[in-house]
Amino acid sequence: ELKVEQNPLFLSMQEGKNYTIYCNYSTTSDRLYWYRQDPGKSLESLFVLLSNGAVKQEGRLMASLDTKARLSTLHITAAVHDLSATYFCAVDMGSGTYKYIFGTGTRLKVLA
Amino acid sequence: GAGVSQTPSNKVTEKGKYVELRCDPISGHTALYWYRQSLGQGPEFLIYFQGTGAADDSGLPNDRFFAVRPEGSVSTLKIQRTERGDSAVYLCASSLYPGVLNGYTFGSGTRLTVV
User: Fold this and answer.
1) By a Cβ cutoff of 8 Å, what residues of chain A touch chain B?
2) CATH fold for domain A4-111
3) pLDDT for A4-19, tens place per residue?
4) Which of A43, A75, A78, A91 would disulfide-bridge A35, Cβ 3.0–4.6 Å?
5) How large is the C-alpha radius of gyration of chain A?
């Protein structure tokens, strides 16, 4: 059974600081997604990573995928308050199942 | 429509009652998915439809849960004899076809509270 673990679960950081969120998964997959969720809101797609070594950047966020290590990272550069949200990684189980297995999420709070 | 629409946005029901949750996917999307998100957790897969048929219902927790998509567009998730443990946010997502590489579009969810 595919398991997806994120760490940290909670992250409180000062504005202007850098930090990395980690997403580990237990079986082979070459499709990984990052979503953002604001309180009471739905999931907003951030990044789609489809191959080993894939790197995507948008603003202060950068995501990467290492399929051999079964690891994805979401790096935050010079955090700002607006980045406060919960971030989820989701792994496509593949093999025609079309299910996403989500991590437990990382609740990020950026302090002004 | 422009996005995935879910109604109602909030539903409070008494234990033992029957509820229906509706999802209206993006127009033209053939694949539709239901997920359940408990407080403080990531979404968990329930069921997905390709067209009118349930292609994978392996995530439905028990036979009190059932979903339909009779015309290949709107879907209804039905929960019988609700229990307090069913309280969660039920998310619907759709995609142009199953396994589309750019991912699924999620609706805003229905928050179900069973009292």
Assistant:
1) 4, 31, 33, 35, 41-43, 45, 48, 50, 88, 90, 92, 96-105
2) Immunoglobulin-like (2.60.40)
3) 999 999 999 999 999 9
4) A43
5) 13
